[in-house]
């Protein structure tokens, strides 16, 4: 038995010799008597269906100006996906963001299409007075939950509701080597309740190996002392295998990363990196930085889980509170306009 359910393993049918069994023999074996059924093809059916519809993934980047937010996102997806117009050239300076913007691109790899939306934030923490500067970001995140909720409660709702909810928020920590700013703590304390936050130490090549290790330990202790749980949260581990994998990720946080969209020649091959007077910092070399660990975690192992936690935890929490505050859903009017909108 597995989690309270009985598992019947398929065994091919082998006819029994004559006279060694009656009609009721093997009656407890269920479908195992009748040979191959084809239940295992459901995986292929699901794959084909999802390949047709494609995937959505929305990522938000938050941090001070100059920490390489856009560059890191471009490096993650090996495309010019963040704040890049069609006329952008490599020699131009990245323009400073003045408002919350979302830029969408369709990325295809191996026949799999993904609509990637990058939500860029204003120069977070750049002002002299940064009191409550996370409120516009929190408002934006909740607005996307509200938009999804309104579509969900419509009578004539769409077959596939457009998903603009923020699945992941990369929070960029300045590589000071000392401790978190009060602004960093306040932001993560307020926003970790509504979105999956993954903290990263930006431009970690400015720190020595010892400074980097010490800084990571300080950040983890401060987050724990303030009761801030970043993704993946311990209470969402479903089994021991998940717990083991996620514990390794939690021990590696915050990821000390380096981003670059420029190629250099090193060791007889072309690599993404940052050129210094002492050599080239290789972005994808685990001995130089933890970029590859972040990429594997975010994209190759936990992308679907980021989406599920957003839907099943953060969105459901918002939905329950929203409907509870409203006293539940009121009857929807039969007028043309009201049948197209939720009567919240």
TrEMBL record:
Listed GO molecular functions? GTP binding
* Record protein name field: Neuronal-specific septin-3
Q: Where is the composition biased (Gly residues)?
A: 19-28
Sorted alphabetically, which SUPFAM superfamilies does this protein's record hold?
Answer: P-loop containing nucleoside triphosphate hydrolases
Q: Which CDD domains match?
A: CDC_Septin
Query: Lineage of the native species?
Result: Eukaryota, Metazoa, Chordata, Craniata, Vertebrata
Identify the keywords attached in UniProt to this record, alphabetized.
Cytoplasm, GTP-binding, Nucleotide-binding
UniProt keyword Oxidoreductase, yes or no: no
Q: Where in the cell is it found?
A: Cytoplasm
Septin-type G domain residues are: 53-325
**GO CC annotation, single:** cytoplasm
